[in-house]
Design a protein that fits this description.
The structure holds 2 protein chains of 2 kinds. Chain A is mostly beta strands. In chain A, 0% of the residues lie in helices and 51% in strands. Chain A is built from no helices and 11 strands. Chain B is an all-beta fold. In chain B, the strands form 2 sheets. In chain B, strands 2, 4, 5, 9, 10 and 11 form a 6-stranded mixed beta sheet that branches. The relative contact order of chain B is 0.34. Classes of the chains: A mainly beta, B mainly beta. Chains A and B meet through β4, β5 and β9 of A and β4, β5, β9 and β10 of B.
Chain lengths: 114, 113
């Protein structure tokens, strides 16, 4: 099915461990985004990529890095996980000028850092 | 500093009645507003949007109203159905920066049969 695929769906990490969250879209969208969802905070933008080869910080980038590997894939890396990074992470994409008609979101990665 | 606020964490409505979800914003640069719906264990899905040149936009049972002077928008669902039970997020953008959205905290809507 066309859309945004995130892997893994669940992950438990120990403090200090590293991991990469993967995201791929097959809609030929230019822009991709990483958000985190926390109770009472809504969704907050971590990083975004306006187009292949570019990335920019969002509202809460500290502790994260991203790579726009190609037009399809946008990964999020936690170099040294902290309990404060326990959250649900969503990747999203949109076409050029199409964000007003809504991003397409993946189903999320639930990350727990212990 | 929460630039987009949904002050009601939850709302309970009877099937067939109107659901009204509210959203306030503080950033006067926001010109575009969107509503998303989210079911458990799924990603948010787009519902409806409005730009600041309009004060109302309708799509079937869903209507969004925008009051720019009050920096307030609302989503009306008429009639409400049990399948509408979900978390609703409002989001806003200033129309630049490739569609970066600022989201509210979300409101849990429960529609009782």
């Amino acid at each position: 099915n066309a859309g945004v695929t995130q892997t893994p769906k669940f992950q438990v990490l120990k403090t200090g461990q590293s991991m990469t969250l993967q995201c791929a879209q097959d809609m030929n969208h230019n822009s991709m985004y990483w958000y985190r969802q926390d109770p009472g905070m809504g969704l907050r933008l971590i990083y975004y990529s306006a187009s292949e080869g570019t990335t920019d910080k969002g509202e809460v980038p500290n502790g994260y890095n991203v790579s726009r590997l190609n037009k399809r894939e946008f990964s999020l890396r936690l170099e040294s996980a902290a309990p404060s990074q326990t959250s649900v992470y969503f990747c999203a994409s949109s076409g050029v000028g199409e964000w007003f008609y809504g991003y397409t979101f993946g189903s999320g990665t639930r990350l727990t850092v212990v | 500093d929460q630039q987009v606020k949904q002050n009601s964490p939850s709302l309970s409505v009877q099937e067939g009645r109107i659901s009204i979800l509210n959203c306030d914003y503080t950033n006067s640069m926001f010109d575009y507003f969107l509503w998303y719906k989210k079911y458990p264990a799924e990603g948010p899905t787009f519902l409806i949007s409005i730009s600041s040149i309009k004060d109302k936009n309708e799509d079937g049972r869903f209507t969004v109203f925008l009051n720019k002077s009050a920096k307030h928008l609302s989503l009306h669902i008429v009639p409400s159905q049990p399948g509408d039970s979900a978390v609703y997020f409002c989001a806003a953008s200033d129309g630049t920066s490739y569609g970066k959205l600022t989201f509210g905290q979300g409101t849990i809507l429960t529609v009782h049969p």
